[in-house]
Amino acid sequence: MIGRFQCKASMTASTLTDIIDECEELLVNTLGFLRDKINSFFIDQDLMENDEANNILKAFDLSNVFNGLRKFEDQITAFKKIIKLLEDTREFRRQWIEQSGPTISEVFTNYPRLLDFNGEMIEREFDSLYPDSGDNFLEKFPTFYAPRILRYVQECKPAVYAESTIIEDENLRALLVLCTLMAVSNSVITKRGKGKGKGKKRTHEERDESPVPVRSSMFPNKDLLKTVADGTNLKNYATELKKR
């Protein structure tokens, strides 16, 4: 039951404490009952001096279970604290991002707690800024965005449109060609200078003033979709990619 429990920020601390107390009571009653039954069996069978019997009884030691519950309670407390701190600093954080234009890495360096809990803090940040937009993109993509993306690519980038015909699924096709239309993140923009500086990664502050954004013209984008020969061992291939 504990393993399936998912903490929600809307829960109060007292509610979470009540849940843990109920778990403790349930465990006390269940494990206590089982321990008494097993203990009675060992006494009847004259096994109390048996080492294996004693090891079995130790498995029902409630102190280990309660330690696990208290660690879970500590995690809940940390979860609530991080949410509160990120909420308190959100307005300042947004002003800094809008005025300074930091890279994603710089944002996470200054606010590492955004990476906690498998990205849930980032999701909460987005929901707080755009409360009515969370599901719009996914909901509208098949019927609204996909056909418009493909129509635009067909008219403005016919070469990419022709290459993408190998992909039968229209939604996947639209998603992949979308990468060729979007400017590369400012954290990986390549320097379009002359001489030895060409091709070198640079920060936001080092970017030139050219109004033309840098885009990836490769289709499909090698960082989004890998194409391999038929019969390739995908597990080995993925392992090799991680080593690069």
UniProtKB/TrEMBL annotation:
Comp. bias regions, Basic residues: 191-202
Recorded superkingdom: Eukaryota
Region annotation Disordered: where it falls in the sequence: 191-218
Protein name: Uncharacterized protein
Source organism: Cotesia glomerata
